[in-house]
Amino acid sequence: MVVRFRPIVTSGFALGLLLSDGIASSLAAEIELPAVTVQGQDESGYRSETASVGGFDDAPLLDTPASISVINAALIKDQQARLLSEVLRNDASVGDSYAPIGYYENFVVRGFSLNAASSYKINGRTITGEQNVALENKQQVEVLKGLAGLQSGISEPSGVINYVTKRPEDVRSVTVSSDDRGSGYIATDVGGWFGSEQQFGLRANVAHEDLNTYVEHANGQRDFVSLAFDWNISPDAVLQLDAEYQSKQQRSVPGYQLLGGTTVPDDASPKKLLGHQSGSRQVGIDALNLNGKFEYRFSDQWKGSVSAARSKVVIDDYSSFAWGGATSGVGNTFTSEGNYDIYDYRSPDDTRRDDEVQAAMTGLFDTGGLGHELTFGTSAFRRVIDKRKPVNEWIGSGNINADAPTFTPTDVALNDSHRNLDSRQYGLFVSDRIRLNEHWQTILGGREVRLDEQAFDSNGTLARHTRQYVFLPQASLIYKPIENVSLYTSYSKGLSLGGTAPWFAGNADETLAPTTSRQIEAGVKYDWRRISFAAAVFQTRQAYQYARPDGAGAFTYVQQGEQKNTGLELSANGWATQRLQIATSVAAIRARVSGSGTPEYEGHQAINVPTLRASVYADYALPWVNGLAVLGGVQYSAKKNANRTGNVEVGDYAVVNVGSRYTTKVDGYETVFRLSVDNLFDKRYWRDAGEYMGDDYLFQGAPLTARLSASVNF
């Protein structure tokens, strides 16, 4: 940071006052002091001290009894991240779980999968997760690891991802970028305040991207636009509105499957598009996210808010899909020789819509010497899915070591669209942070959830109608021996939506009833100077959902048994020295299944969950070149089981990333050049060995990728 003081002109009398000792009581001449340049270190960086995902409002991480990581705009920009997977690689507790190129991404947190129906939010309101949310208008991405029943109602035990949007400010910037494959990217960020009292604020983000991916035949494009509006109606009333729309078209890239169900493919190229058909269509995903919040301060102690949101995604899902070797009698794996079947998959107009509204009150008061921060309110949420029974027709076969032949596409007519799910939940919640004294706090709360859910079969016939009342309690105890250290322990109960049976199960497409989960956690957080340290241990239990083998090739999708994940998380974020900042995390997880009724699925690590994962990223400002910093990091993952029986695994890997950032002025405008090189040593590895709709898939990591960008601030 450079601070420049203007030349100061002062009279002798003023100088005498400044000297304050009576010397030079009057001077006839004026004294002009020369301009002074002071070099200092910018206080901003990768460290964030607050997050809103852990409660109902923005709160210090030190006082939040949960494991939360925050990846802010500074780190997102330096890593030139465009996808959530590129953001979440900074958190060792998070891994990919069926996140193919050209489709929407899925993730595992603490060994449990996130759910597209409930695990993703923008500004605290739920969005449809079947989209790759744009990052151009996001101030930070918050990851709450673990149960969030009090905050979110129905949600997965894995946690919640919350995107926080940028608010209006005086900004005018343009960013252009390209990579070693010739991709093109341009984005603008424009904002400001206006009105007689500067009470209105606007911020607009626009981006276009030509996607030249490393996978052959899988290029695409993306367009994005967003608008944020703030209105300071009065000193006590604020209205905030956000709207964003994104359209993306790109071929979906199928994953590999185990050869003969027992072997990981050798020498597989990450650049090959399995099952490619020249006439196949791209997958189109159009996403609209709207949300708004009105907040009114009744007094210095009490405030209220009303927020609402709508999220709608329409997916035109087309794919020449490589799957199994059914024609060779192998089933849902490739053959031992690497042969696979090719299916012409079509499911256009796949529509998901979420609507949510919430009203809350927060107040501060004392009773009997105890300080209270009380929050209570109500919420309503509805999710509907309208889709067709997909066309999924076999058209031919291919081999992983050769380009697929061209086959005649299917002429089977599309099925009619129908309601697949109509899920409504209503909640009453209360949370009270009680300050017992200067060292001890407790947070007690809960949410009463009323679920009214209708699930329909593939023909649109009502298959299940669930009405359920569940109380989700949460209790935490916080001890702060000194101001910058906190120790906490917490207990919580959650309710998760039931899974959907895969197509090969006897109850195909059936959505099971919701299931409960429980979690205990303990942790410590320490803020030292400009760096934050955190450690947490946890144990989470959830009903096990899977396609149970019934013999003779038959399966039934059931909730039977339990998966218990126990783990340790460590992290450090902030300035380690005046010139070095770091963002690091480590996670060790033991994930086991018991009571499933299928012994071969038990007694070993769960599928796609490594026992150890780590992430280190650093930024060092070079002392001999003002404005130049070198960046770099490593992502490490231990080996992972690639199927539920645990007899096949993919190896461990370490991926090295490097980069640089140079800040200067071009024609008087601040300009930032960024260079990033991911997978510096072109490591071949399996980043994802997850499961989707009952089938196991393997996805390789990206090869060496170099990206260069320039951002100009006007």
Automatic annotation (TrEMBL):
Signal sequence range: 1-28
Cellular location(s): Cell outer membrane
Broad class of where this protein is predominantly found: membrane
Topology in membrane: Multi-pass membrane protein
Record-annotated TonB-dependent receptor-like beta-barrel domain positions: 230-680
Record bears the keyword Signal: yes
GO BP: siderophore transport
Pfam families linked to this entry: Plug, TonB_dep_Rec_b-barrel
Residue ranges constituting the TonB-dependent receptor plug domain according to the UniProt record: 61-160
One example GO MF annotation: signaling receptor activity
Keyword Signal carried by entry: yes
GO cellular component, one term: cell outer membrane
Keyword field: Cell outer membrane, Membrane, Receptor, Signal, TonB box, Transmembrane, Transmembrane beta strand, Transport
Superkingdom in the source lineage: Bacteria
SUPFAM superfamilies: Porins
Family: Belongs to the TonB-dependent receptor family.
PANTHER family xrefs: BLR3904 PROTEIN, FERRICHROME IRON RECEPTOR-RELATED
Protein name: TonB-dependent receptor
Organism in which the protein naturally occurs: Pseudomonas cedrina subsp. cedrina
Organism placement in taxonomy: Bacteria, Pseudomonadati, Pseudomonadota, Gammaproteobacteria, Pseudomonadales
